[in-house]
Amino acid sequence: MADRYRLSFTTGGLFVPEAASVAAVYLATRDWAIARAQTRQDNLLQVRTAAAATRVSKEITARLEHLDHVELQALSDLNIHDRASLLWVAACRRYAFIREFATEVLRENHLHLRKRLTFNDYEGFYSSKALWHEELDQLAVSTQHKLRQNLFRMLREANLLSESAMILPASLSPALTTILARQGRRDLLGFPASEKDIQRWLQ
Question: How does DSSP assign 104-153, residue by residue?
């Protein structure tokens, strides 16, 4: 069997405003445990309960840990559009399930001029992966729906999907593509973009 998927993205979307605040705390302390604790202590996430603060801070830091120092610093400098795109990359790095959906479904639909992304696209992908990942079959139906709901929410927040489920070609600034290109092609394949676009970003 393939390596088990991490499937803890059932809360929130990309956490665009919150992630920048947490990243700033980490950059000041250089310790993720301290950053999580301070985030909860200062209620930087503006959540109502301690349990929610613990859950959300853990989820945000788990994704941010996949960004390097340059990328974390960029979260405070980039515009909100690029910030969302960078947090989409962080989600793809954290969750192989999301990365594979982005490359195998989102980008492939874009390349084949299929302009919409539907729940049927998602269900087909989910079913195909469940053949190799028994953990997908073991999820409650309600959890499956939450995963789908949050994945589509992330796509909208990353400006890759419209409210009417139309795929939006990626629009990344030169500042962001310069940062991402340091890691090669892999992260760029998570966006609805042509091979020509990717080659231009890598230059």
Answer: IIIHHHHHTT--B--HHHHHHHHHHHHTT-HHHHTS-HHHHHHHHHHHHH
